[in-house]
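Quick one, T. Sequence first:
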Amino acid sequence: MGKFINKLQIDLLKRHVNPFLFCFFTLMFLLLMQFLILHIDNLIGKDIPLKVIIELILTNLAYMVVLAAPMAVLVATLMAYGKFSELNELTALRASGINPMKIIRPVLITSLLLFVGLAWFSNNVLPEANQKARSLFIDIRVKKPGFELKPNIFYDGIEGYTFLVEKIDGETDSLYDITLFQKPENNRDRAYIIAEKGLLVSKNAQALNLNLMNGYSLKFTQPKRGNNTLIERNTFDKHVMTLDLSDLSFMRSDPEDRNRSDRTMSSRAMFIVVDSLYKEVNKQVAMAGKDSSLIASRKYGGGESYFVHQQMSKNTNTKPIPAFESGYIVPNHFDNASTQRSLLSESIRQLTEYQKRLESIQSNIEWRKKRIARYLVEIHKKLSIPFACVVFILFGAPVGIMTKRGNFGFAALISTVVLTFYWVALIQGEKLADRLLVSPFIGMWTFNIVLSIAGIYLIIHLATGFSIKDLFKKSD
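Structure tokens:
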């Protein structure tokens, strides 16, 4: 019997391999296509080297692996156990007196190993890949489009110049009816150039010669003395200009020179940041308490305040106005109304300043708490998404057995419904945690916990026949 169980367990594990690989690579392809569709505008038309585009795609494959693996596990589990139940192998297993949990155990252990590997990947490989991809995205975003003149459209892609060309011959790189505005930059004077014809000649990868023919130029020169601008007119048969195209070339930057965000940091690095943020929050709280003690220590009763002594000394040479009965306790200790009024105005001023300081401290604390929540969300996410591999085994195995269908279409249908709820819950949980409405743990783990409880209940139901209805029967 033991050999039979081992063979059956190995057979079930093998049944997971093909559906898992097929679904995994299918999802990777779909995610890759989605990525290309979203970013195709940033990659085309900028003369970016193919090597850079391939590197950008490879670095973005890291997050796709983390997303695709749990989804592939769910589909493979539904198909493998659905086929197992469809062939009535479960009935034979039960007839032999074998607990169905034994056929789930090896797959569950495998999912735990996958969880550990995926969690390591998410914590060590994914942040570095995200940092490189982020750096590449920034480099691509700041790169200007190539030198592409279009007829009757102003072009200012080259720094310091604005072009307007009426006609372009693409075969000979000839330009006709050219208007060129030269900006007063880099020791150049402002100039206005008109030419009947021009010819573009490539000098090297970062420079381009523009040969202008039959035209004239207006050069606006600002003399060192005086405010009058000198206008110099020159006609030419041929005029050669060298255009610097270095700004149009793609430049790589070092990813390590860029600041890291929560998605480009390991859990250890984020814990360090969180710890420092907690210390800053405690400092802000201590500052608020210190300010309140300063306000409280400024006693006005009994004539102890320096401010009150000052007010009383000011009123020694004038006839004091008799004090009036106030609704406040402290002002009633003084003999004249002017001191009372000064005391009240000073108290209100200090309390207003204290209120503003408290509001500033409160906003600083809230900002730091939101940063803490964002880092903690990312830390929990590095574990909750990989742990979905285990959750989907707990839920998918009994569901697959109960549905008794091992075809891909049915498994894909159930997986689509479950994964839709899972990702919606994960995204909404992240948003709620970032807004401090729920804790990061609840935001990232709620659906995992709910689905795990549902899966454990279904496994117990398959193994023992236990149902929730039995609890109510016993209570009755």
